[in-house]
Amino acid sequence: MSEISSITESQLVSEMPASPDELIAQLASIGRAAQRECAAMDSASRAAALQGAATHMRKGAKDILAANAKDVEAARANGLSSAMIDRLTLDEGRLESVASAVEAVAVLPDPVGEVIDEAVRPNGLKLSRVRVPIGTIGIIYESRPNVTADAAALCVRAGNAAILRGGSEAVHSNRAILSAFAAGLEEGGVPAGLVQLVPTQDRAVVGAMLTASGMIDMIVPRGGKSLVARVQADARVPVLAHLDGVNHTYVHSMADPAMAREIAVNAKMRRTGICGAMETLLIDAQFADAAGLVARLIEAGVELRGDGRAQALDDRIAQVSDDDWGTEYLDAILSVAIVDGIESALAHISKYSSAHTDAIITDDLAAAEQFLTCVDSAIVMHNASSQFADGGEFGLGAEIGIATGRLHARGPVALEGLTTYKWLVRGSGQVRP
């Protein structure tokens, strides 16, 4: 049994520190020591350990799926929404995807040590900026047990320690995944304690993580609006925020009707419970197949809520409310508005978008470029489903979240987003006059 697992189990039984602050201080101390040890490992060794972690997850699939079944059963008994249950559920295919994502991270280029730029000053000083790990990262997340493996893999590959605090609805799944993952890491020589799962669901521990300045170097929240709002309000540690996905698709007047129908249905219905799902459809008043587009969405099982002009297209469209425009439904519900041209679409998106992912469908390249330039979201798309808003689809391996802020990292946050840099200065005896 790995040291990580033995620490977690003993704390769960009888050795829990007296307070949440003491618990987080202990986990951070273990993580920092492991991170310093990991810094001495070469990139190939960390990559091989991640390959081993994926192998152990496959070997432990039966136990992981059994643990997940407990969580799903409890979620149903507690009345969780279908979207939450979908996020929570693992099957053989999804678990294989999680293991494959870990392997994908293992073979990605290691950003640590990369020279960002170099310069030589007139006095002969040689300057360079190189990428280094951030340090100890706290990840607070809900529902999705795949985040346990994704976040752990990304942190390890970038040389960081991770303290994971998953949601209570996925507690059995998270423990089973990390147990298998940690066994693979330790077998590969990665120090025990580099990745730790908080061994209690006490909500006070979240507060302790948020105020652990000097012990935790960055917090990454992944969850609903209330979680992110609490983290941003209470944190005394830098936060890399993953906000909700109030995502728009604008069907321009020059959109191909067949393409518009296919993309719109996929953007809403492929998986309704993910942050990349479309939540508002904007249809240009000059688009010739507006009625056919909304009919296709209704046939696909979408509940449409529209303004008066949208309702005129189909009497099955319900009246939209002001609150709908800013709602992340995470369900088979979609707001629809008719807009008068691209400027009107841009104005609507500017007012209601959460700056996650917004898309335009059009054959007019000038309109597409205007949209791509003017929409200030982390991800802006042309003729593609918003469901592609994913680190794996971007070739980044797994992702730790999609950052919607403007500092440090934006969009899918993968390896590079989990590094910072330091300056190296090489001299030959220079003194400053």
In which order are the strands of the major sheet placed?
10-9-11-8-7-12-13
Shape: globular
Strand content: 15-25%
Mean pLDDT level: 93
Number of distinct helices: 15
The structural class is alpha/beta
Radius of gyration: 24 Å
3D architecture notes:
The chain has 433 residues and is of the alpha/beta class. The chain has helices at 3-15, 20-38, 43-59, 61-77, 82-88, 92-106, 146-157, 171-187, 204-210, 225-234, 257-269, 290-299, 308-311, 342-352, 365-374; strands spanning 115-120, 126-133, 136-141, 161-165, 195-197, 218-222, 247-251, 278-284, 303-306, 318-319, 333-339, 357-361, 379-382, 401-403, 411-413, 419-426. Helix 7 (146-157) links the parallel strand 3 (136-141) and strand 4. The protein is globular, with a radius of gyration of 24 Å. The chain starts with a helix and ends in a 7-residue tail after the last strand.
Break the fold down into its secondary structure elements and pairings:
Elements: H1 3-15, H2 20-38, H3 43-59, H4 61-77, H5 82-88, H6 92-106, E1 115-120, E2 126-133, E3 136-141, H7 146-157, E4 161-165, H8 171-187, E5 195-197, H9 204-210, E6 218-222, H10 225-234, E7 247-251, H11 257-269, E8 278-284, H12 290-299, E9 303-306, H13 308-311, E10 318-319, E11 333-339, H14 342-352, E12 357-361, H15 365-374, E13 379-382, E14 401-403, E15 411-413, E16 419-426
Parallel strand pairs: 3-4, 3-6, 4-5, 7-8, 7-12, 8-11, 9-10, 9-11, 12-13
Antiparallel strand pairs: 1-2, 2-16, 14-15
Helix pairs in contact: 2-9, 3-6, 3-8, 4-8, 6-7, 7-8, 11-12
